[in-house]
Design a protein that fits this description.
Structural class: alpha+beta
Number of strands: 9
Helix content: 10-25%
CATH topology of the largest domain: Quinone Oxidoreductase, Chain A, domain 1
Oligomer: single chain
Shape: globular
Largest sheet: 5 strands, antiparallel
Strand order of the largest sheet: 8-3-4-5-9
Number of helices: 6
């Protein structure tokens, strides 16, 4: 089993207040994984337009209302690929499929309840939580991929094939999935024509990758 040297401090892209500047901080603490968590070394990450809206304080929900419940200081990033460098206590025994050196995705959704009607139906992107637990994401609630190391929920982990190209894979975790879902929802058939809006940007380019 490989071993990795993990520093105490790291470089992060930090936003201290909404509308504020992005600061590159070189002495930010590296978290250690808790129970049912892994620590991943970030290899590559994309930058989503929603990251920019969140930093600027202009993000809004599906209802059009401003999103103000944002963790501050804030480290964004939800289009990342990392390598597992540490495992939480007891995790190897509970889930041998997660191992040191594995490639993992750092995507928008970070933690879900796995118990509400949406999670049980396989539509966990609409997770409502149970009891006091509320779902979280790497855009508003938890630190994301704009740092060297990130802790991830091992029970809701995107484990990637070992031979994928992290550079190409990282942006597909948001832009790629968004475009893919739109194509699937359109129920296209072979021979149908598809018009891609915004073909010069991340979402528009993804269907052609």
């Amino acid at each position: 089993m490989p071993s990795f040297s993990i520093p105490q401090k790291q470089t992060v892209a930090l936003v201290r207040q909404l509308g504020g500047a992005v600061e590159f901080v070189n002495d930010y603490p590296v978290k250690r994984p808790g129970q049912d968590e892994v620590l991943a070394k970030v290899l590559y990450t994309g930058v989503c337009q929603s990251d920019l809206h969140t930093r600027a304080g202009t993000a809004s929900g599906a209802d059009g209302k401003p999103i103000t419940a944002i963790k501050l200081p804030h480290i964004g990033g939800h289009e990342g690929v990392g390598r597992v460098v540490a495992l939480g206590t007891g995790l190897p025994e509970r889930d041998p499929s997660i191992h040191l050196g594995a490639l993992v995705g750092i995507r928008f959704s970070s933690r879900i309840c796995r118990r509400c009607e949406y999670c049980l139906a396989g539509t966990e992107q609409y997770c409502q939580g149970v009891g006091d637990f509320k779902p979280t994401n790497h855009l508003h609630h938890e630190d994301g991929a704009f740092q060297e190391y990130v802790c991830l929920d091992a029970g809701y982990l995107t484990v990637l094939p070992p031979d994928v190209d992290p550079i190409l894979t990282a942006p597909t975790l948001c832009a790629g999935l968004t475009a893919y879902k739109a194509v699937m929802n359109a129920e296209l058939k072979v021979g149908d024509c598809l018009a891609v809006v915004g073909a010069g940007g991340g979402l528009g380019r993804s269907p052609r990758l």
